[in-house]
Design brief:
Pfam families: EamA (PF00892). This protein is mainly alpha-helical. Helix content is about 80%, strand content about 0%.
Length: about 290
């Protein structure tokens, strides 16, 4: 069952990037992140009350609280970097870099959870790494820098690093807590962090200038994120992080398909094979579990 939740997470995650990109055409990405987190928080707490896990919050240990908070802070940092990168960069370039967090997550899962790292998973890492490099070829990066500056690449890389930390910290934090409750707590941390940054950076006045159409897309991206999170952490609770995370990264297929439909972004001659290598590497991580 956890595999189905993992694929559900991939689908909703793929939609999130497209909906968010539509919502930050003219809207500041930090302000948009703060607004959409409200939607995710509402969504996640509704699920907590549906499953009836709200009463167990008093039973959480200090260790669980610490790791849930740290995971929330890491998630907030990843979000802020990711949506800033999406705002100033090309979706087809930003998303592959963000998804490369799979590699670091697998290595950290091996170190902290002693999850198996075989020749098959090693091959998968290589394929994903090579595929990512092909999708962000130098020519494309240079073109993006000419248009929007170098910032998008830095933000995309930071997003991947924080996303990896989020998975590991989240895995530790939800060992003894109902997955929906864990997601809700983490979301509350992200919300606080996002709004503090909005006011500290003096961007609160931009909240009143968000176009209604973009506000709609921001809210829809929040709903998609809520669905992705609930599926992801439910899968992560029952399944190995080294497999759940790669499945979740298949969201790149959804994102690229919709980026072509919505933004007319096309894959280059190198990025096409790169995408194929990423998908192949991901399936190499999944095959042992499916055949078990």
């Amino acid at each position: 069952m956890w595999i189905l939740f993992a694929f559900g997470s991939a689908f909703f995650s793929g939609l999130t990037a497209i909906l968010a990109k539509c919502g930050i055409q003219k809207t500041d990405s930090t302000a948009a992140t703060a607004v959409r987190t409200i939607i995710v928080l509402i969504f996640s707490w509704i699920m907590v009350f549906i499953v009836g896990s709200q009463d167990t919050i008093t039973n959480l240990s200090v260790k669980t609280w610490i790791f849930l908070i740290l995971s929330g802070l890491s998630t907030g940092a990843s979000w802020l970097c990711y949506f800033r990168a999406l705002q100033i960069g090309n979706v087809n370039k930003v998303v592959p870099i963000d998804k490369s967090s799979t590699i670091l997550t697998m290595l950290l899962a091996f170190v902290f959870f002693h999850e198996g790292f075989t020749w098959l998973s090693g091959t998968a890492v290589i394929l994903i790494a090579v595929g990512t490099m092909l999708m962000i070829e130098k020519r494309d990066v240079a073109a993006e820098e000419h248009i929007s500056g170098k910032g998008w690449l830095v933000y995309a890389v930071l997003s991947a690093v924080f996303a990896s930390l989020t998975s590991i910290l989240g895995k530790i934090g939800i060992e003894n807590v109902e997955s929906n409750l864990g997601t809700a707590i983490r979301t509350a941390v992200v919300l606080i962090m996002a709004w503090i940054i909005v006011f500290v950076t003096g961007k609160s006045d931009k909240l009143h200038k968000i176009p209604k159409r973009e506000l709609l897309f921001i809210c829809l991206s929040g709903i998609a994120t809520g669905g992705a999170w609930l599926c992801y952490y439910r899968a992560l609770q029952d399944g190995p992080a080294s497999v759940v995370v790669p499945i979740d990264k298949l969201s790149i297929l959804v994102t690229i398909a919709f980026s072509y439909i919505v933004f007319k972004e096309k894959l280059s001659k190198k990025s096409g094979p790169g995408l194929l290598l990423i998908v192949l590497g991901t399936f190499l991580m999944i095959v042992p579990t499916l055949s078990a």
